[in-house]
């Protein structure tokens, strides 16, 4: 029997990277999984890869009109959810003097507003004893150049994991966060950086990491699985940092 047998999980942003690896892990442990992404084509590809226990819903995390339809569209698949992993998002990076209002609004919309209202809209479906997991980032733990807006947005998400835990205790819904360090995903190609810039960033960062490598998405997914499962029955309002020690070892 898997750790998530008979459970139904929702994962925002499940078409690639951490979300897709988590969907694979959840299904491997017996869950049925609903994933989202912005584009029908990549969503269909991910659902085909995941197999018959996966469902896909096109939903843009930065569009309130999509988020408002989400619960109804999920109800066409399942009446209730056991697990919600609010993961969808990406980073964009710029020095403070270059940050535009558009960049500020874009990141706060997709990461803060999108995450909050996705969880809010799905809460009526979440069963008592359920688990909500938010994807923050290790950049909340220290000051990182060019990351003022991304870090602040993820810090807001980190804050939600505590306040939502307080509010959902009465419904016995556990709320926790996973805080990934540098992880090998498509995320970097969505930052607006060129292939050369991405290679340069990786070359600069890798020697600074204790294990001299980025995390694999499955290594983050393992922590999300733990938080989703009954193994984490006494974790509430917590955050698991999966950064290979980067934020604490110098
Ligand atoms: N990679 C890292 O080093 C790292 C570190 C810390 C935290 N994180 C966080 O981890 C989460 C997942 O990122 P990842 O690294 O796994 O990158 P990824 O491979 O690019 O995955 C991002 C996922 O989010 C979806 N997504 C992006 N914008 C969306 C939107 N507006 N609406 C709906 N879905 C959206 C993407 O789907 P489509 O593109 O198909 O729409 C994709 O499924 C993000 O919140 C990121 O900030 C990543």
Automatic annotation (TrEMBL):
It comes from the Bacteria. InterPro entries: NAD(P)-bd_dom_sf, Sc_DH/Rdtase_CS, SDR_DHRS6-like, SDR_fam. The keyword Magnesium does not apply. One of its GO terms (molecular function) is oxidoreductase activity. Keywords: Oxidoreductase. The keyword Oxidoreductase applies. PANTHER family: DIHYDROANTICAPSIN 7-DEHYDROGENASE (PTHR43477:SF1). Belongs to the short-chain dehydrogenases/reductases (SDR) family. This is SDR family oxidoreductase.
């Amino acid at each position: 029997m898997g750790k998530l047998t008979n459970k139904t999980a929702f994962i925002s942003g499940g078409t690639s990277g951490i979300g897709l690896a988590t969907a694979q892990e959840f299904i491997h442990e017996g869950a049925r999984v609903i994933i989202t992404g912005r584009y029908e084509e990549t969503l269909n590809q991910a659902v085909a890869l995941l197999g018959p226990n996966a469902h896909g819903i096109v939903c843009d995390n930065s569009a309130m009109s999509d988020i408002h339809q989400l619960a109804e569209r999920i109800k066409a698949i399942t009446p209730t959810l056991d697990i919600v992993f609010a993961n969808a998002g990406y980073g964009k990076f710029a020095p403070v003097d270059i940050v535009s209002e558009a960049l500020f609004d874009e990141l706060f919309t997709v990461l803060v507003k999108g995450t909050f209202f996705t969880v809010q809209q799905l809460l009526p479906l979440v069963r008592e004893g359920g688990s909500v997991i938010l994807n923050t980032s290790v950049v909340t733990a220290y000051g990182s150049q060019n990351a003022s807006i991304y870090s602040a947005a993820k810090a807001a998400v980190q804050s939600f994991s505590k306040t939502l835990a307080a509010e959902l205790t009465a419904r016995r819904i556990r709320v926790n966060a996973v805080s990934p360090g540098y992880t090998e995903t498509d995320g970097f190609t969505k930052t607006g950086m060129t292939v050369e810039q991405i290679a340069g960033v990786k070359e600069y960062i890798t020697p600074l990491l204790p294990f001299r490598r980025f995390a694999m998405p499955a290594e983050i997914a393992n922590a999300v699985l733990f938080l989703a499962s009954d193994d984490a029955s006494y974790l509430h309002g917590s955050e698991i940092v999966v950064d290979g020690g980067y934020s604490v070892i110098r």
